[in-house]
Design a protein that fits this description.
Elements lengths: L8 H7 L6 H6 L7 H5 L9 H9 L3 E4 L9 E4 L3 H12 L4 H5 L3 E5 L2 H15 L4 H8 L6 E3 L11 H15 L7 E5 L1 H13 L11 E4 L6 H10 L4 E7 L3 E6 L5 E3 L4 E7 L7 E7 L7 E12 L9 E7 L4 E3 L2 E3 L1 H11 L3 E7 L7 E6 L7 H15 L4 E4 L17
Parallel strand pairs: 3-4, 3-5, 5-6, 6-7, 17-18
Antiparallel strand pairs: 1-2, 7-8, 8-9, 10-11, 11-12, 12-13, 14-15, 16-17
Helix pairs in contact: 10-11, 12-13
Length: 412
């Protein structure tokens, strides 16, 4: 068994004056850093004269994590930390850097929380923006990026909302001489957009993007298939977080490459003999809140089931959304494999677990119709074989999105 990673001289020097790390420095050992410890006595446990000066000058700022799968967490970071990480990868990625180099506009179709964050940043900088005269300006992150979504649940988008977003996409497209633009999205939001456009007969008004990045959540196999069938351009996945920036990127075939500038990754088994690994990140990329041996809450699986980060094949879900079954721990990605094998039409799904009741799986479909009896029977049998449990499977017309604007497949 490999020894736990301990930071080298550069990382130690970077954190030696930060209160939260003093005990680790004194003991010459860095234990795993958990989210509750980060939040305890915040921000005093991070405060140094350098940080205080940066906060005063505006070189550092307070933000909040999205809190999709855990309580929202305070973070200190440089302005545009995540955006700069995104831009760096976009500009370097072999499949999509051409849209970066050509100065294409980036339109972002993701959670309403992200749009509201951009609007609040603009309000702090420029004062309240008149909603009718300059609403688009309030959703522009910088000269290159516009956020589109103003609705919590994309399944509830109206025709008027779709037409507004299409007009804004068209305006972005027309800013390039060849009509190229880059689409940034949550994969679920883009899938909903495609389905809603078809529902209202607006598909022809949606111009093909020149490149697509989805970067905000786990993408189910059926959603990935829908997007690849719908769009001819490269579709790239970025993996990262608000507090860490982006750390891995896929190619257009879905194979991942690391982008670990000023970072180190450990993979720790989620349970003894498990091939599901927790990501433990050491990073000084953010100079004001360096995270050493930080448990991000994300999990990964590798090609050969080893704890080698260079062999990561996919990010398989969150620690808090692991299903502990009689036959062992099941990640969302493993559950999703069974969904996709049974029916390519299943879209959103949620597994409800209640004490003294059989588990219930609710699902929606791209078509809006129930999955076939054969598909449901196949899925039920596969789940029983994988978990030892009998699952009630029920079609739903709609599954509500979470308050963060993301779906939880295993609600807590």
């Amino acid at each position: 068994m490999s020894l736990a990673f301990q930071p080298g001289a550069e990382m130690r020097e970077h954190v030696r004056d930060i209160p939260i790390y003093r005990r680790a420095i004194d003991r010459n050992f860095f234990p795993i850093l958990e989210k509750p410890e980060i939040a305890s006595d915040f921000p005093h446990n991070w405060m140094t004269p350098r940080l205080a000066s940066a906060l005063k000058s505006g070189a550092a700022e307070f933000v909040m994590s999205t809190g999709t799968h855990h309580a929202r967490m305070h973070i200190i970071r440089p302005p545009y930390f995540l955006l700069n990480s995104y831009y760096q990868l976009w500009g370097a990625h072999p499949d999509i850097r051409f849209t970066w180099e050509q100065g294409c506009q980036r339109v972002s179709l993701t959670t309403v929380l992200a749009t509201e964050h951009v609007a609040s940043v603009n309000a702090r900088k420029h004062g309240p923006v008149h909603r009718d005269a300059a609403d688009t300006a309030s959703r522009r992150l910088d000269a290159r990026t516009l956020y589109l979504n103003k609705t919590l649940d994309p399944a509830q988008w109206t025709r008027a909302e779709l037409e507004r977003m299409l007009a804004e996409i068209e305006k972005a497209r027309c800013m390039h001489p060849q009509g190229f633009y880059h689409l940034d999205c949550s994969s679920y939001h883009l899938a909903h957009f495609v389905l809603k456009l078809a529902e209202f007969g607006l598909e022809r008004d949606f111009p093909q993007p020149a490149s697509i990045v989805h970067a905000y959540e786990y993408t189910p196999g059926n959603v990935r298939r829908l997007l690849r069938n719908r769009f001819a351009c490269p579709i790239i996945d970025l993996f990262g977080s608000t507090e860490l920036g982006y750390m891995f990127y896929s190619d257009r075939q879905g194979c991942y490459t690391s982008h670990l500038d000023k970072m180190h990754v450990e993979l720790l088994p989620l349970a003894p003999d498990s091939s599901i690994y927790s990501l433990i990140i050491s990073s000084i990329r953010n100079p004001y809140m360096p995270l050493i041996r930080y448990r991000s809450g994300d999990c990964a699986q590798t090609i050969d089931h080893s704890p080698d980060p260079a062999k990561i094949k996919r990010f398989c879900g969150r620690e808090k959304e692991m299903w502990h079954t009689p036959f062992g721990v099941m990640a969302q990605a493993d559950f999703d494999d069974l969904i996709g094998a049974a029916s390519a039409d299943i879209f959103v799904y949620q597994l409800q677990l209640k004490a003294d009741e059989e588990p219930q799986l609710r699902y929606t479909t791209f078509s809006g119709e129930r999955a076939s009896h054969h598909a449901v029977a196949t899925l039920r049998d596969a789940l029983r074989a994988a978990t030892g449990l009998t699952i009630a499977i029920e079609h739903s017309a709609h599954i509500a999105i979470g308050k963060s604007g993301k779906y939880a497949w295993l609600p807590q």
